[in-house]
Amino acid sequence: MFGTLSDRLSSILSGLTRRGSLTEEDVNAALREVRRALLEADVALEVVRSFTDKVRERAVGAEVLKSVTPGQQVIKIVNDVLIETLGGEGEGINFDAVPPVPVLMVGLQGSGKTTSTAKIAKRLTERHKKKVLMASLDTRRPAAMEQLAILGSQVGVQTLPIVAGQSAVQIAKRAVEAARLGGYDVVMLDTAGRVTLDDTLMAEVAEVKAATNPHEVLLVADALTGQDAVNTARAFDARVGLTGIVLTRMDGDSRGGAALSMRAVTGKPIKLVGIGEKVDELDEFHPSRVANRILGMGDIVSLVEKAAQTIDAEQAQATAQRMAKGQFDLSDMRAQLQQMEKMGGIGGVMGMLPGMKQAQSQLANAGVGDKMFKSMIAAIDSMTAAERKNPDLLKNSRKKRIAAGSGTTAEQINKLLKMHRGMADAMKMMAKQKGGMLGKLGSMFGLGGGLPAGMPDPSKMDPAQLAELQKQLGAGGGLPSLPPGGFPGLPKGVTPPAGMMPKLPGLGGGGLPGLGNPFGAKKK
Of the spans 323-327, 332-336, 382-386, 418-422, which averages the highest pLDDT? Predict the structure, then answer.
């Protein structure tokens, strides 16, 4: 979502880090570019002014201009102000009340309100162990109540039975009473929406609020609508009083202006963000992590959390033990590709790694992405168990059969096998390496239960501290230090920055042995 803004800010601020010293003119020139980048990202003008004024006030002080690393000091200041603009510390949904706790969902039609209601209910049920009841108060949109009932069955959450002819207020009162009698912890009230703001909509929401006294009033806003989402938040807050915001379509191509503006304009925290259409694609909003990703510092903490949530610990342990013995067949490769998909694909994972912006762009230009991995999985699925275990069985006739069954070509099967051979060789070398690199990676991504022991939180570091951490890790203090070498099976021109690829014996800068451009990805 913040791709364009991240590119602009990174290029502007990297120009400052290359200077030995900074003058006030240097800072002002950089801030003019920052101002332009924020305006192009559809950030509200008043927020842009406040942002640049705060940065200028802190950046032109003597402690920056006379600093040993003034460029990095300015980046830290920009990062700090960005976190303040996004809301400081993240806030979750508050349940500090006598159950059942009413949660009122408001917003315009088409913003994803009903889907977000089901997503939140699923999250509360699975992560917070709450007993949740959902109720649709939308008496105008055709099949709105049926939609929530279907979503409820999908996520395993009870919905209020539909009674025809009742008003929104009557349904809300019945839902609260049913939740109280049924011993529910939370009752989610999904209100009706309109294409645009109108008095009828606001009056109905106000009546429902007065009748139920909700503990949370969450506005569901579409991030793709930019400044309109900010205006919607203002209107709802003025009329019914919001306690938080749920921002949907954060995985879209929006320029990020709504997210950057909403907290500053309304004073209400963004509590949750929708990152996809599936019912489990909902995340808490962490301002510090979002700011780090915008400035290209990555988000290791979120990556570890996502890995811990998606990785099957037993399966991962078994795979790690096989890899430690140098065993890596096509079934193992398929499991790794599927795990990458669960964690958001290669783009999602690389977006959370510090300093990977350039490599991410190189991958996109080379045509390497999730579509290619899906083709690989389809090809492996078309093989027999014996073929997956022993790829040497795959002669021309078998390759043609697999290609026909998976919608690929024999040439692509050859490249897949070449990629597998390279990865298998790499695993054998990593298994022999002193210090147990596979063990470190295993503890990092779910096998050790979180961040490696003694590793500080990278999401709270400025660029200078992050660089120092990577330097320290290179000496064996946690994550392995990895020089440019190319990912297994990716184009040779795609090389991450220093400190991110494994030091494998006998490898140069062209990637792992035998690995070229899988599935014929062509550069644009």
Answer: 382-386
Concatenated DSSP letters of 273-314: EE-SSSTT-EEE--HHHHHHHHTT---HHHHHHHHHHHS-HH
User: What does the block give as tokens for 66?
Assistant: 């006379």
Residue pair 221/247 in contact (Cβ under 8 Å)? The answer is: yes
Decide if 261 contacts 292 (C-beta within 8 A). Answer: no
The DSSP output letter for 222 is E
Tell me the pTM.
0.61
CB 159 within 8 A of CB 133: yes
Can you tell me which residue has the tokens 């350039």? 358
Q: Please check the confidence at residue 520 and state whether its pLDDT lies above 50.
A: no
Residue spans of beta strands (DSSP E) within 37-169: 101-106, 132-136, 158-159
Quick check: 263 and 269 in contact, CB under 8 A? yes
**CA–CA gap between residue 257 and residue 277 (Å, rounded):** 21
User: What's the one-letter identity of residue 439?
Assistant: G
Alpha-carbon gap, residue 461 to 297, rounded angstroms: 9
Among residues 213, 314, 218, 201, which one has the least CA distance to residue 268? 218
**What is the DSSP track for 25-59?**
HHHHHHHHHHHHHHHHTT--HHHHHHHHHHHHHHH
Output phi, psi for 217, to 5 deg: -120, 105
In 3D space, the residue among 260, 257, 316 whose CA is nearest the CA of residue 285 turns out to be 260
Q: CA nearest 422: which of 504, 341, 488?
A: 488
